[in-house]
Design brief:
Elements (H helix, E strand, L loop, with lengths): L1 E8 L8 E4 L3 E6 L5 H13 L10 H4 L7 E9 L2 E10 L1 E6 L2 E3 L5 H4 L2 H8 L3 H4 L2 H11 L5 H8 L1 H9 L5 H28 L15 H15 L9 H26 L8 H22 L4 E3 L6 E3 L2 H63 L2 H101 L5 E8 L6 E9 L2 E2 L5 H19 L5 E3 L15 E6 L6 E4 L2
Parallel strand pairs: 3-14, 13-14
Antiparallel strand pairs: 1-2, 1-4, 3-15, 4-5, 5-6, 6-7, 8-9, 10-11, 11-12
Helix pairs in contact: 4-15, 7-14, 9-14, 10-14, 11-13, 12-13
């Protein structure tokens, strides 16, 4: 890349438009605060939107607050082709490349990355990076060392081991192995603690024996006692049977008495005769009524004598009345005779019933006296009193036996619990022994794996060390007095550890003079251009601090302080 012209307006102190033409070698002179560094910052801002330190938030500081339209325009040649770049801030940030609006990432084709651009363009930038960032930039710029080349350096045994264990990305592989190593260490700590925790010495209880003969003897006695039946004082079974027989007879007689009281005498039937008598009476009354209605008389026309036309009818009814009267009288006599007979029958029945009831009541009385004479209630009471007395005695014996049995059962239970505890302790000790054996095997396996992982880590470190050495060989051929240290030896272990340090004439960067810093930065810029294949302009600020500036095969823009001199830009012929 070659910057041909730079124009700016509203950038830092420039209120008005200014233009500067640049050549392969351009020298910028001027007193302090004349804008020498501004040219370098304008280039950085145009390409990166940042200042020379890479700060992308510096736009406010770089632009003139009095100008609403702020822009930097650069005409440059890249790979033999002319380009025009404009960065403008008019409210919002705008970028134009060859009159086309573009985004920041589309400019990466010209410089690959912000860090690489500034490391080449501004010699003070790279040494000011943190070791981590500087190393990442350098290693990302260097051509990668082929794995097979590193494997060849390490030897077949190490190479095969790395390949077998999935070695691909060195740093990721190392991190994974270290993570696994930490996991193994944690597991070992756990299993060591587990093993120690299992070492407790728990005493095994002695086996005890319980003689249960006495217990069985007491239990048999209790069973016999519970099965014991108490014979009554008086055997009243026959008496009870006899009482039931007597009671049955009493009930039977009482039933017969009740039946006798309800029994009716067998009377002669007079109802039919009474009905017949009523019928005759009704007929008789009807005939009388009919007779009274017969009054059919006429007078003889000759003799004027009264003639009764119903005389024959009246005679007939009269005969009927006489006959009905006679039958009624006879029927009345029969009814009276039957009623007299029934009265006699009732009287005889009542006397007979009374006699039978008296006889049966007398029998009932005798039977009840016989039941009382059996004296069963007294015998039952005596039997109950006798049974209670004996039951009390048996209950006392039962309680004594149950107490003895309970004591022996508790002793038996203690023996059984002791023996169960003994079995539990023995089983637990067997389990502990098995677990300790398993933990010892696990610990051995973990230690074997730990040794293998440590070997993998060591091989990966050797890979990185070899790769760094080969990278260092790439670097060294482009450096003169600058040394970039990529690894160091740990004195306590003798182990090679990745490192990053910039030395100039074997001096660390912090103690270098300003001129030495510029020279170191130029060597690094030259290194980065050679390994990246990207040739960018180099802006050397404070160039007055170095008498002879090393010339690089690229565009050189040198800014020097010159007292009492306005800003001057000269293109060397």
């Amino acid at each position: 890349m070659l910057i041909n012209k730079i124009s700016m307006h509203g950038f830092k102190k420039h209120n008005d438009l200014v233009e500067y033409r640049l050549g392969k070698t351009t020298k910028i002179y001027g007193d302090n605060d004349q804008g020498k560094t501004t040219i370098g910052e304008a280039v950085a801002w145009a390409f990166l939107g940042a200042d020379l330190t890479g700060n992308e938030k510096a736009t406010k500081r770089l632009t003139n607050p009095d100008c609403k339209d702020v822009y930097v325009e650069i005409d440059f040649t890249f790979k033999g082709k002319e380009h025009n770049l404009v960065r403008r801030r008019r409210g919002s940030m705008q970028i134009y490349l060859d009159d086309a609006k573009v985004h920041q990432h589309e400019l990466l084709n010209f410089y690959h990355s912000k860090e690489l651009f500034l490391s080449i363009f501004y010699p003070f930038y790279f040494p000011a990076l943190t070791p981590k960032n500087a190393k990442e930039l350098l290693t990302s710029t260097l051509k990668p060392i082929p794995k097979e080349k590193v494997y060849e350096e390490l030897g077949e045994s190490i190479a095969n081991k790395l390949k077998e264990t999935g070695f691909n990305i060195p740093n990721l592989y190392l991190e994974n192995q270290r993570v696994r190593l930490r996991e193994i260490s944690d597991d070992l700590n756990y299993w060591d603690g587990f093993k120690d925790a299992q070492q407790e010495d728990e005493e095994v209880p002695k086996e005890e024996v319980f003689d249960d003969r006495k217990l069985k003897e007491y239990q048999e006695e209790l069973s016999k006692l519970n099965a014991l039946t108490i014979s009554p004082k008086h055997d009243i079974e026959d008496l009870l049977v006899r009482r039931e027989e007597l009671r049955g007879k009493v009930q039977s007689l009482e039933l017969e008495v009740r039946e006798l009281s309800r029994r009716e005498p067998k009377l002669k039937d007079v109802k039919g005769l009474i009905l017949e008598q009523d019928s005759l009476r009704s007929q008789y009354l009807s005939k009388q009524k009919e007779l009274k209605t017969l009054d059919n008389k006429i007078y003889c026309p000759n003799c004027e004598a009264e003639i009764d036309l119903d005389i024959s009818r009246k005679e007939g009814i009269g005969n009927d009345l006489e006959q009905l009267g006679h039958e009624g009288i006879e029927l009345g006599k029969q009814i009276e005779k039957l009623q007299e007979d029934n009265s006699k029958i009732k009287k005889e029945h009542e006397e007979k019933t009374k006699k039978e009831v008296l006889e049966k009541n007398e029998k009932i009385k005798k039977l009840k006296l016989e039941i009382e004479s059996l004296n069963i209630e007294k015998l039952v009471s005596e039997n109950k009193e006798y049974a209670q007395k004996h039951e009390s005695k048996v209950a006392k014996q039962r309680t004594e036996l149950e107490q003895k049995i309970l004591i022996l059962q508790e002793e038996k239970q203690k023996v059984e619990l002791n023996n169960l505890e003994r079995i539990r302790v023995i089983k637990r000790q067997e389990d502990l022994a098995r677990k300790i054996k398993e933990s010892e095997k696990t610990i051995k396996d973990l230690n074997d794996e730990k040794a293998d992982v440590e070997k993998c880590i060591d091989y990966a470190k050797r890979y990185n060390s070899t790769s760094l050495r080969l990278q260092g060989e790439q670097i060294d051929k482009h450096l003169d007095k600058v040394t970039i240290q990529l690894e160091k030896i740990i004195e306590s272990t003798g182990e090679l550890k990745e490192d990053f340090k910039i030395l100039y004439d074997d001096k660390e960067f912090q103690v270098l003079s300003n001129s030495e810093r510029i020279k170191a930065g130029l060597e690094i810029a030259n290194l980065l251009m050679n390994v990246s294949g990207l040739t960018l302009p180099v802006f050397v600020d404070n160039a007055e601090s170095i008498t002879v500036i090393p010339k690089l095969d690229t565009q050189m823009i040198e800014a020097s302080v010159k007292r009492n001199t306005e800003l001057t830009v000269e293109v060397a012929q």
